């Protein structure tokens, strides 16, 4: 049966990079036997402009009826002054929640051809391959109560709540251990158990769950040390499992080890393997509309989609090999360009990957 894919381009460079990924899906369907049906939907600022809401009900319904969702990016200065509940970012958080995609998988890897694009020394990052498993629909980004209130003395206070239940911690820990079974079987759980009770419980639950995975070696690390270690000696890590906020920050840090935020894909999975796939970058308003954004993070998100939700492993390999070939051939978008390489636009990069598939 054909896989049902929902495409949500979003705002800024979202539509530009998603167009290139879609081009690839068309070619896989028309020439390599991939059976898919594609549907398009609105999210973020684009959805607000069209419907007055950042996540229309039709988008949620279509997403829930799909096998996988390919998402570009949302946000931009145009919508920053809107009421908090109407901002584009709310649309994405609400979609993740509605889909129950609790596990965010973000690889931080370095393509050999791009070692020189990193700000770190080659020997520190060569062959780097870390998988972040970030809890995505709990913790301080969703905890209640939250808000900004005025106290009796007239001063305003802002507050959020960091809260994790045992079951939330257990399911993300299991996801991390399962992922580790297909890798080097090492998991580092990152918390701040010395200061935050919520992560004291996190550490306790993760330590219990690992008993079901005797093949996996677990270590614990405080988040401040993890930030330092990721820059100092990142190759010590295999799988890192952590909370929503710590994962947000650390995975962005790790993305820069690999040279450009424009290279890294991500998957957000529910309990049944349905997933929301997206590049880790945002809508990049500073370069939107210029046909210079790097579409490879989105193209590699399609490869993750084929692997994790659609179980089309050969098609996933095909895309990853094509991307490697393009990089080997010296083809570069502006963000990863170095002297002597061939500088290409967003569209030309998409075309190059399509050509490398043949
Ligand atoms: P950003 O990721 O959009 O951009 C950070 C920097 O990286 C910019 O200089 C940008 O030009 C560059 N960059 C990002 N993607 C690139 C690509 N594919 N190719 C080349 N260069 C690229 O982050 P930001 O500037 O902090 O946020 C901009 C907007 O995006 C904000 O509205 C923010 O809320 C939103 N945002 C959305 C998501 C998402 O949709 N998942 C994630 C982060 C930020």
Characterize the structure shown.
It is built from 12 helices and 14 strands. With 358 residues, it is of the alpha/beta class. The protein has a domain at 1-102 and 264-358: Isopropylmalate Dehydrogenase. The two termini are 25 Å apart. The structure holds nicotinamide-adenine-dinucleotide. Residues 13, 17, 73-76, 89, 92, 261-262, 278, 281-287, 293-294, 297, 335 line the site of nicotinamide-adenine-dinucleotide (NAD). Nicotinamide-adenine-dinucleotide is lined by residues 13, 17, 73-76, 89, 92, 261-262, 278, 281-287, 293-294, 297, 335.
Topology overview:
Blueprint: E1 3-10, H1 14-31, E2 36-40, H2 44-51, H3 57-64, E3 68-73, H4 88-99, E4 103-109, H5 122-125, E5 129-135, E6 147-150, E7 156-159, H6 166-181, E8 186-191, H7 197-209, E9 217-222, H8 223-232, E10 239-242, H9 244-257, E11 265-269, E12 275-279, H10 296-308, H11 313-328, E13 331-332, E14 342-343, H12 346-357
Parallel strand pairs: 1-2, 1-3, 3-12, 5-10, 8-9, 8-10, 13-14
Antiparallel strand pairs: 4-5, 4-11, 6-7, 11-12
Helix pairs in contact: 1-10, 1-12, 2-4, 6-7, 8-9, 10-11, 11-12
The structure holds nicotinamide-adenine-dinucleotide (NAD).
């Amino acid at each position: 049966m054909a896989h049902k894919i929902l495409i949500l381009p979003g705002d800024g460079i979202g539509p530009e990079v998603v167009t290139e990924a879609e081009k690839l899906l068309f070619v896989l369907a028309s020439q390599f036997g991939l059976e898919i049906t594609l549907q398009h939907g609105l999210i973020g600022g684009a959805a607000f402009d069209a419907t007055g809401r950042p996540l229309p009900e039709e988008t949620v319904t279509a997403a829930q009826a799909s096998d996988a969702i390919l998402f570009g990016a949302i946000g931009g200065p145009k919508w920053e002054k809107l009421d908090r509940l109407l901002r584009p970012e709310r649309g994405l958080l609400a979609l993740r929640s509605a889909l129950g995609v609790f596990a965010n998988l973000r690889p931080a890897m370095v393509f050999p051809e791009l070692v020189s694009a990193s700000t770190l020394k080659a020997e520190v990052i060569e062959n780097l391959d870390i998988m972040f498993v970030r809890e995505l629909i709990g913790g301080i980004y969703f905890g209640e109560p939250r808000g900004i209130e005025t106290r009796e003395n007239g001063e305003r206070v802002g507050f959020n709540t960091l809260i994790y239940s045992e079951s939330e911690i257990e399911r993300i820990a299991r996801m991390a251990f399962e992922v580790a079974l297909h890798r080097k079987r090492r998991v580092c759980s990152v918390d701040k158990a010395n200061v935050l009770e919520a992560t004291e419980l996190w550490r306790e639950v993760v330590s219990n769950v690992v008993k079901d995975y005797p093949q996996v070696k677990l270590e614990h690390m405080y988040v401040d040390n993890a930030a330092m270690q990721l820059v100092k000696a990142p190759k010590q890590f295999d799988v890192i499992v952590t909370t929503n906020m710590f994962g947000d920050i650390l995975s962005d840090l790790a993305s820069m080890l690999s040279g450009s935020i424009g290279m890294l894909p991500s998957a957000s999975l529910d309990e049944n393997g349905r997933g929301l796939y997206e590049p880790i970058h945002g809508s990049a308003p500073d370069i939107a509309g210029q046909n210079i954004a790097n579409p490879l993070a989105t193209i590699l998100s399609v490869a993750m989609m084929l692997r994790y939700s659609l179980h089309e492993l050969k098609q996933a390999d095909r895309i990853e090999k094509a991307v490697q070939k393009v990089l080997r051939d010296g083809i570069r978008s502006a963000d990863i360009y170095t002297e002597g390489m061939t500088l290409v636009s967003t569209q030309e990069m998409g075309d190059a990957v399509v050509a490398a598939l043949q």
